[in-house]
Amino acid sequence: MTRSLKKGPYVDEKLMKKVGARKPGSDAIKTWARASQIAPEFVGFTFLVHTGNKFDEVLVTEDMVGHRLGEFAPTTRFVRHGGKMQKEIEQQKKAAEIATAQAAKATSATAAKK
């Protein structure tokens, strides 16, 4: 859903103040304003956008103007798909680790006897 044209784009006021006080390429600007739209004045700045538990670094380019800051800092992380094949692969890896651990233990035991 787009914002009304009579209202104009939403850009956080505190964020605009921070951008106005700094020069592009300087240290990153920390922000929690994920809903703030990227204005043309932001180009060249680096933002640290809050994702819920950490801050993701976002370098603003011209292509990003008009989008929201939160679009470039995902809040969820893809782990992997499961399934039968994945379980079999994991079991093979575990079996290989156990075998190498047992082999190492056996060699250390024989070395200790000598």
Can you walk me through this structure?
There is one protein chain. With 114 residues, this protein is an alpha+beta fold. The protein has 2 domains: 13-72, 30s Ribosomal Protein S19, Chain A (2-Layer Sandwich), CATH 3.30.860.10; 78-114. It contains 2 helices and 3 strands. The protein has a 3-stranded mixed β-sheet, with helices on one face. Strand 2 (46-50) and strand 3 (55-59) form a beta hairpin. The longest helix has 30 residues, at 84-113. The radius of gyration is 25 Å and the shape is elongated. The mean pLDDT is 88.
Q: What is the CATH first-level class name of the largest domain?
A: Alpha Beta
In terms of DSSP E residues, the strand content is 5-15%
**Which strand order does the major sheet show?**
1-2-3
Secondary-structure content class: alpha+beta
Q: Rg, please?
A: 25 Å
Shape verdict = elongated
For the biggest sheet, the summary is:
3 strands, mixed
- Mean pLDDT across all amino acids: 88
Low-pLDDT stretches: none
Query: What percentage of residues falls in helices of 4 or more residues?
Result: 25-40%
Helix count, per DSSP? 2
CATH superfamily of the largest domain: Ribosomal protein S19/S15
Quote the distance from N terminus to C terminus. 76 Å
Total individual domains: 2
- The appropriate CATH architecture of the largest domain is 2-Layer Sandwich
Mind sketching the topology for me?
Elements: H1 13-21, E1 29-31, E2 46-50, E3 55-59, H2 84-113
Parallel strand pairs: 1-2
Antiparallel strand pairs: 2-3
